[in-house]
Amino acid sequence: MADADSENTGIAGQDWATASAQPQYHAAVVDLLGALAYGELAAFERLAEDAKLAPSLADKAALARMASAEFHHFEQLDQRLLEIDAHPTEAMEPFAKALDEFHRQTAPSDWLEGLVKAYVGDSIASDFYREVAARLDTDTRALVLAVLDDTGHGNFAVEKVRAAIEADPRVGGRLALWARRLMGEALSQAQRVVADRDALSTMLVGGVADGFDLAEVGRMFSRITEAHTKRMAALGLAA
Amino acid sequence: MADADSENTGIAGQDWATASAQPQYHAAVVDLLGALAYGELAAFERLAEDAKLAPSLADKAALARMASAEFHHFEQLDQRLLEIDAHPTEAMEPFAKALDEFHRQTAPSDWLEGLVKAYVGDSIASDFYREVAARLDTDTRALVLAVLDDTGHGNFAVEKVRAAIEADPRVGGRLALWARRLMGEALSQAQRVVADRDALSTMLVGGVADGFDLAEVGRMFSRITEAHTKRMAALGLAA
Q1: Predicted ipTM?
Q2: Where in the sequence is the domain holding A119, given as residue range(s)?
Q3: DSSP for A54-111?
Q4: Chain B closest CA to A101's CA: distance in Å?
Q5: Which domain CATH number covers A148?
Q6: Number of domains composing chain A
């Protein structure tokens, strides 16, 4: 997907020991892992919260299982931040506000909205981190791809949402609007983070060594938006 | 502590294959594991909920870690229920109402109340299940003791609550009242469960083979209450 970028930067062919000699790259990775770690912790909280809306004990247990999987991803990131001599809570702190604000602005009002939110949110975050992973050193890339490993949430959400729309097609209209609101709010918070975090932004747009490449960022956002549209269609929702 | 009981029943010397030949014992164990499993799921939810009240990111992560540990206990119980041909959600269902009602009646209004509740609740539940474990067949006992393994919550709560009382002694009075309310509500819900579930109650009061032994139940409740009083004193609270 973003293979072209990895060739651009040179970082993608290096391991952490070599790549992290560049202080700007080191700072960018701490930022990235901090953002990802806080995202996992927030996902844990969100799924645990949604578990309370579950219509059955089996659904509740399924959501608790996914929450717990997110927590284990968080633990791996937390551990890695310690290994590279970063302070995990300090690394997460800069991203807490934007993510909390996103979750505050998009509190689901029922079980289905919660499922759509978790699905849309996880998928967009996952697409984004996969794009970023291609620009990372080999060690950091392996970790990022490992914590993006599917927690099974996607299939669960798709199955439940499709069944609900089949049972009552009007539900589809309401959830399509909801998914659009989620995408809008996610983009607006992402812009805020990118504007605030120089090291991270510089890495995202073409790699530390190559400076800004706004055209490539534009293409990345197009790819993520396209994938979102396809997923919504698969769910039975017009994006 | 309850070694005398294990000698009474004979069950405590048997493995599951032998002991479960008695249908009443089989039913009692399904009840017990169902209650324990729902308790772990509810504990997961409660800790995840309390994580939102955490005053710092490090505290939030600590609570999420404990919640995740409770979920893994739940998974072991869920797995065991399947192994003994029980339906996990059906086994949990009879206990959901009492536990949900307990949590509804005792929603903490701040971080410290949440910590005291988790500590008091976990400790009482743990004391109770340890008493019961002594009456169980060897296989079920090993599982019950394994899932009672400390999730580290106790020490964490004690440390934080003691520090808060040292910083402001008036906090102690408020939390002591809160702990008394928790104990009262726990006992009232426990009575309701015992009244509803014949197989479980029969096992609790002296073992299936030996019929009711109310004096022993009385002693068990005294031991649990005494241990609670000691813990509250250690926390700096008058019970």
Answers
A1: 0.73
A2: 19-235
A3: -SSHHHHHHHHHHHHHHHHHHHHHHHHHHHTT--HHHHHHHHHHHHHHHHHHT--SSH
A4: 14
A5: 1.20.1260.10
A6: 1
